[in-house]
Design goal:
- There is one protein chain.
- With 270 residues, this protein is an all-alpha fold.
- 79% of the residues lie in helices and 0% in strands.
- It folds into two domains: 85 residues; 122 residues, Tetratricopeptide repeat domain (Serine Threonine Protein Phosphatase 5, Tetratricopeptide repeat, Alpha Horseshoe).
- It has nine helices and no strands.
Length: 270
């Protein structure tokens, strides 16, 4: 039921008074209704004010969030532009490096081919001109006339360091065939193993094994034995790997590889 408004109640009260029929009870009811109407109006005004305050606060919050999102978007856009620029520069640099590597590889391959041709020619010359006998102490007939041991070894090692394992392998194999008595023979065998390490671990292990068995006192022996343990780990042969690591610690206890082997044994639980 709709409450009477204040003007209507006032008019009603006046009418009652004028009519002379109003009693004190009637007047009290009119006054009570006036009070209730005022309280209801005040309550509605308060609720409307609170609602308006909430709306204003929500509006401010949304404005702040929008401003923050706008700033974040601007920052991300700037970072994205910078990232794109960096990626473009990096790609260009990589392309330039690839071109250089290809050029170096081609030159090195050509140089090794020339070396091999010279070595073959030298071998043929030696075979054709080798005397039946030589004076004791005369080494003229066996002295190499092509690239020296140092040249061939360093050229092959340089190829391995530049990331050309196949070319390096050919060079080291030729070094072994030509200078089989050189003190760096175990190093050459080790580096041939390294040239196979990434793609053919079984072949790598074969050369590491030659170093360990044929040159146990060389500087490469401990490293080769440790590498055999790593190859065994790659094959999931844990017991075999432990055996190689234990040999490193026992046979080469003062080597750097011995410390690495002890770490691997701990990792594998001995």
């Amino acid at each position: 039921m709709t409450q009477p408004t204040v003007p209507r109640l006032a008019a009603l009260g006046i009418a009652v008074l004028l009519a002379g029929c109003a009693s004190k009870g009637d007047l009290r009811r009119v006054e009570d209704q006036l009070v209730l109407s005022r309280q209801e109006s005040a309550r509605r005004d308060s609720a409307a004010a609170n609602r308006l305050t909430e709306i204003l606060q929500l509006q401010r919050s949304l404005s702040d969030s929008l401003a923050t999102a706008t700033r974040s978007f601007a920052t991300l856009s700037a970072q994205l532009q910078t990232f794109r620029g960096d990626v473009s520069n990096d790609l260009y640099n990589v392309q330039q490096q690839l071109v250089q590597v290809q050029a170096l590889t081609g030159q090195s391959q050509q140089r090794l081919t020339e070396l091999r041709t010279q070595l073959d020619a030298r071998s043929e010359q030696l075979g054709a001109s080798r005397p039946e006998s030589t004076t004791p102490g005369d080494t003229t007939a066996s002295r190499p006339t092509g690239p020296s041991a140092d040249q061939m070894y360093e050229a092959s090692l340089g190829q391995l360091r530049r990331g050309s394992p196949g070319t390096a392998r050919m060079g080291f194999q030729q070094f072994i065939r030509t200078y089989g008595q050189d003190a760096r023979l175990p190093d050459a065998l080790y580096f041939i193993g390294e040239s196979y390490a990434a793609d053919a671990p079984d072949s790598a292990a074969a050369y590491y094994g030659q170093v360990v068995s044929g040159y146990p006192k060389s500087a490469r022996a401990a490293t080769s034995l440790y590498k055999l343990g790593l190859v065994a780990e790659r094959r999931k042969d844990i017991e075999g790997a432990k055996g190689f690591y234990q040999r490193v610690t026992k046979e080469y206890p003062a080597s750097d590889e011995a410390a690495l082997a002890r770490d691997r044994l701990k990792s594998l639980g001995r």
